[in-house]
């Protein structure tokens, strides 16, 4: 209504709008109501970010960018553990000392030092840079992904009882997805490595080498330094990201067949 009052004070009945010829504040509804709903719906889709949603709704990107980035940073940090709680870190073996380097983030801020320092996490404890040999690095990631594929294809089913170690490769799922363990008869057989776990693991690896996403996990004051730190390895990062993404594209879990989801409704309509 042009008064500058709060949103709940500017709410009117439809008859009042028609009588006084008031204008609906579409920007308010798009940014405060629809945006939040669509944001939550698209949260699980890694390819969609909040700026893309805002642009699709016709919102002023410049106006909303600061708020979006502030909220995204908090969400990235807060939701990381929850989103990737069931995935394993990337473990690479050093060629020099043969020790394993466990990688969850590319960048780590050392808060134990007097001056907080940004470190690249792709450094072995023996101080060797794991990115020096590009071929070795790419091949190591490839072998890890291939092992995951084999693990996923084996489809082992295990008893979920802690005391029972029974496992079997094939079970009859024609009647009930939850099958009683034939060994202990008290617990349920569950798949040891599901398609969902496999897909989440691959997605984690892809995000790990997406520098644009990795810098969102650290404070904004370190971001320029972080990008400079790995600038000469960006081509290698992109190579690994594309490699993993190719595997993801071949994963059935990545695709949704709407015909199968709505087949019952379509049949009823017909």
UniProtKB/TrEMBL annotation:
Keyword vocabulary terms for this entry: DNA-directed DNA polymerase, Nucleotidyltransferase, Transferase
Signal peptide range in chain numbering: none
Superkingdom of the source species: Eukaryota
EC primary class: transferase
GO annotation terms (biological process): lagging strand elongation; leading strand elongation; mitotic DNA replication initiation
Domain Zinc finger DNA-directed DNA polymerase family B alpha per the UniProt entry, residue ranges: 81-262
Protein name: DNA-directed DNA polymerase
Keyword set includes Nucleotidyltransferase: yes
Gene3D superfamilies listed in its UniProt record: DNA Polymerase alpha, zinc finger (1.10.3200.20), DNA polymerase family B, C-terminal domain (1.10.132.60)
GO MF assignments: chromatin binding; DNA replication origin binding; DNA-directed DNA polymerase activity; single-stranded DNA binding
GO CC, alphabetical: alpha DNA polymerase:primase complex
Entry EC no(s): 2.7.7.7
